[in-house]
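ZP: hey, is the adenosine-5'-triphosphate complex queued? I don't see it on the tracker
AM: it wasn't, my bad. submitting now with these inputs:
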Amino acid sequence: MSNNLLEVKNLKKSFGGIQAVNINELKFNKHQLTSIIGPNGAGKTTFFDLISGFQTSDSGEIFLNDINITNSHPYKIARMGMIRTFQLTKVFDRMTVLENLMFSGSSVSNDSLVKSIIKTKRQRNYENDLKDKSFEVMEELNISHMANAYARELSGGQKKLLELARSIINNPDTLLLDEPLAGVNPKLAEDLLGLIQKLASNGISILMVEHNIEAVMKISERIVVLSEGSLIADGSPGEIRNDKNVIEAYLGKSND
Ligand SMILES: Nc1ncnc2c1ncn2[C@@H]1O[C@H](COP(=O)(O)OP(=O)(O)OP(=O)(O)O)[C@@H](O)[C@H]1O
Ligand SMILES: [Mg+2]
């Protein structure tokens, strides 16, 4: 089996006059933790939107596990094992943590709505399994004590944890994390980083967009840098730290 996880070719997306994404060629290998960084508006979230099917591209091609997924629906891509989190968390405020997890765990399954309304014995077993699995995930993330708390009662950081929990309940092969540490207090950020590393060491391929450069430098095997929609650097943390284009993109070009 090939080691290709994701490949994009000539991928373009613009909004009005703004070229949000314009990437000639970019490949990711399986079982790597890669960070995608770049200044605000660089196109990082749009890149995630395109590869996860939440936006259609203007042109170009996207391959997941060597299968062409260009402009496929998000649920199809999720069923292929690539699951994303959102920069602004999308947890359900009126549901408890447990309900949020059970809902996410069922959304990628093949069970039809009719089957979930008519509660057969099989369905009840399915629900119990889902509940067990939810508790397993909560234990892994140290949030079991929050099972019955409503999502709206959680802090921003706890919501980020719940969002991560919701994404791993479906046993993803690949996780796309959009700013998992944003708005999270330093202690929880440290815990989240440890969790992300643990998921990576369990073999999950991870692409992470993150502004916390210290965290990015610490855990990434590879760093890809976008600026104004384009790829401007790609390398190890050590290489990226000293890259002239990267420093310029963040600090702006000097006048001389
Ligand atoms: N739905 C949209 N409609 C119009 N413009 C958009 C839309 N989504 C993104 N853009 C624009 O595309 C560009 C890239 O935005 P994107 O959100 O992908 O950047 P980003 O790198 O994720 O930034 P940040 O670090 O602030 O999250 C920006 O100029 C943004 O204003
Ligand atoms: Mg973004």
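AM: back. The chain has ten helices and ten strands.
ZP: great, adding it to the tracker
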